[in-house]
Every structure is written in C-alpha cells, then in structure tokens.
Amino acid sequence: MSTRQDSALSYPDRxxxxxxxxxxxxxxxxxxxxxxxxxxLALAVPFWKSGILKWQGFLHLNDTAIYLFSDEFKLHLxxxxxxxxxxxxxxxxxxxxxxxxxxxxxxxxxTRFAAAGLLLMxxxxxxxxxxxxxxxxxxxxxxxxxxxxGPGRLSIDHLLGDRTYRS
Length: 167
Hints:
The structure is a single chain. The chain is mainly α. Helices cover 69% and strands 5% of the residues. The protein has a two-stranded antiparallel sheet. A two-stranded antiparallel sheet has the order 3-4.
C-alpha cells in the first residue's frame, strides 16, 4: 500500500521535471529551419529599408544617396577620416547590394553569398559609422550564422540541393 508521499515527486524532482518540459517546448518552437528563416528575415529588413530609400527609379539613384557618399560619409581608418573614393560608384554599389542581397536572403537563393555580401557591407558601414557597432555586430553575427549554417529547409537553395549541415 502506497501513501501520498510515495506517489508524489519531491520538490527538486518537480522542478527538474518542469525544466525538462519547458526545454522540450522551446526545442519544438525553435526548429532549426524556422530559426534560419528568422535570421534571414531579420538581417534582410534593415538593409532593404535603407536600400529602397536610395533609389529614384530603375537604376537611378536619388541625389541624397550620392550626396551622402560624396560629402557626409567618411571612412574612419587610422590617420583619417578619409572621403570615399569614387563616391557615386560606392553609392550605386551600396544601393544595389542593399536591395538585391535582402531579396536573395528572403527567397533563400544564393543565401550564403548574400550573407557574405551583407557581412562585407556591414564591415564598410562600421568603418563609416564606428559608433553604430552595437547594431553592426548584431548584423555581422546574423550574417556569419547564415553563412555558416546555410539557409535551412525553407529556402530555394534547399530545393536546389544545399542541404549541408554544420555542427
């Protein structure tokens, strides 16, 4: 005959059981493919929003974008800051990257290359606006995560055969 004490879990066992159940719930929610999609979307949004503001029409930059690279933005390198060389070219390449890389990320097409492109852009942005490092390091971490672990199952790359998994 068992008593109530025999059938009930001890307090530490109940805590351990609750932790195990909570961890399993989090693992079900945070599926790798969902996390990879969330990283791709989170990294795409700020670049897309910045890039779309630089265009006036198809392949036509607005004057503000060129002005920023000509007069406002400077490269903060040792002995600097220095102006951007060929500011119109940098403005155009920046605007193209800020629009095309996010589209590729969202679609999951050429995902690792798009992430590498945004990582390079983040490095240049950091050299331009060094006080923005708390946000820039977040972008860099997301880009590195995407480049390292790939686009996930919810991507065109996966359909095309990029199914490599790195542990």
